[in-house]
Amino acid sequence: MFHFQAPPPLSLYVHFPWCVRKCPYCDFNSHALRDALPEHAYIDALLNDLEQELPAFWGRTVHSIFMGGGTPSLFSVSAMDRLLSGIRARLHLHPDAEITLEANPGTAEQERFTGYRDAGVNRLSLGIQSFSNAHLTALGRIHNAEQSLLAVQAARAAGFDNINLDLMFGLPDQDSAAANADLESALALRPEHLSWYQLTLEPNTRFHAHPPMLPDDDEKWAMQTMGQSALASHGYTQYEVSAFSRAGRRCRHNLNYWRFGDYIGIGAGAHGKLTDAASGSVRRRWKKRHPRDYLEAAGTTIYLDGERSLSEPEIVFEYALNRLRLREPFSLGEFESYCGLKRDWITPLVQQAHADGLMICDGEFVQHTDSGWLFLNDLLERFLPEEVQNARYRCN
To answer: Which of 66, 85, 174, 303 has a Cα at 20 to 30 A from 132?
Structure first.
């Protein structure tokens, strides 16, 4: 049984499902834009979606907003202004809320940066991926290296002092020298935050069906260790598996995810997680995935595609799955507060990981060892619900 003194912090995620072109590595819910962008209808749908959610979190303060996709920056300044004004009118937004917009470095989007800033966006996340035109072409990106540089300049000119750059390594036919050149180009722009991660071949993508030639494991390991050293030497701290920031510039929205906070999800295919302290339950819910179905369901009682309550073992695993992505330790008191469970649910698992050299526990605070961080997937498997572990064992 769950017992909450109060629900955890709350964020809002807004999904925009359209891109100019679907990238071959992308497994997100994004769709190539084939007709005119239904701006007005989609903003109406988002606000109707939010109104449907209001009873579940009425009176709670939202501390961050993240607008992701897809390519949110395909939407005009007036559309974003109407959306953010509508959000502010419907919920209690913290005065210092972090409001992030994902943007493509393309020229058309750059022209909108000042308008987005005036509408209330205070953090910009640019999908750079690489500064090599050859690698950008291989990744199916529609911008070039020069546009990436110009996008950062345009963001600074628009007044953004909190910028994230998305950058990947382990790209098709990339070697360590090329990966290092990409990272050096990014560091020269002095972003406040870098999301730097390895390209993986995800199911249901073109790259998974037709795999390109990727660097071998030794080469990717060399890229990773080289990159971590370069980032540290430039004053960036790795606070999460693929996130690096300057002091005081960690992404507050993503931190709320990793600390197992609550979040509302609006938009096509958006997921949410909400704690009901009064009833002692934690529920996940998700919206119609295809933009057409989502727009048709907007403002009706069928906007949900599904929802379910989480069990105690699922909560333990999901907490570990998220929380252990962070380098910082967690306290058993935090586990009790965010999960609504007694620490007895997690301490036996922590103690076994401690005995195996994967975690450190001093009685209240818990953190991975260097081995636990290096072999994070092995560590996380120890927190899987018993029925899942038994099923995996029977299959082996």
So the answer is: 66
Task: Name the residue with tokens 């996709």.
Answer: 69
65 near 12, Cβ under 8 Å? yes
The residues near 153 (Cβ < 8 Å, ≥ 6 apart) are none
Q: How far is CA 348 from CA 118, 357, 361, in A?
A: 51, 14, 11
Question: Helix 312-323 to helix 386-395 angle, to the nearest 10 degrees?
Answer: 80
Q: Are 121 and 101 in contact (CB under 8 A)?
A: yes
**pLDDT at residue 390 greater than cutoff 70:** no
**pLDDT given at position 23:** 87
Distance of CA 199 to the CA centre of its chain: 16
Residue 268 is encoded by which pair of tokens?
Answer: 């096509």
Q: Is the pLDDT of residue 391 over 50?
A: no
Contact 58, 52 (CB under 8 A): no
Q: Find out if CATH 3.20.20.70 is the number for domain 10-256.
A: yes
- Residues whose CB falls within 8 Å of the CB of residue 141, separated by 6 or more in sequence, listed in order: 23, 127, 129, 130
pLDDT tens, 188-207? 999 999 999 999 989 988 88
Rounded-to-integer distance, Cα 104 and Cα 348, Å: 46
Q: Are strands 31-32 and 18-19 parallel, antiparallel or unpaired?
A: parallel
Q: Where in the chain are the domains? A: 10-256, 312-396
Question: For the residues of 99-126, what is the DSSP string, one character each?
Answer: EEEEE--SHHHHTTHHHHHHHT--EEEE
Read off the pLDDT band of 363 (50, 70, 90). Answer: confident
**Within this chain, domains 10-256 and 312-396 share the same CATH topology:** no
Q: Which of 43-47, 260-264, 361-365 has the lowest mean pLDDT?
A: 361-365
Quick check: helix, strand or coil at residue 21? coil
Which residues partner with 65 through β-bridges?
12, 99
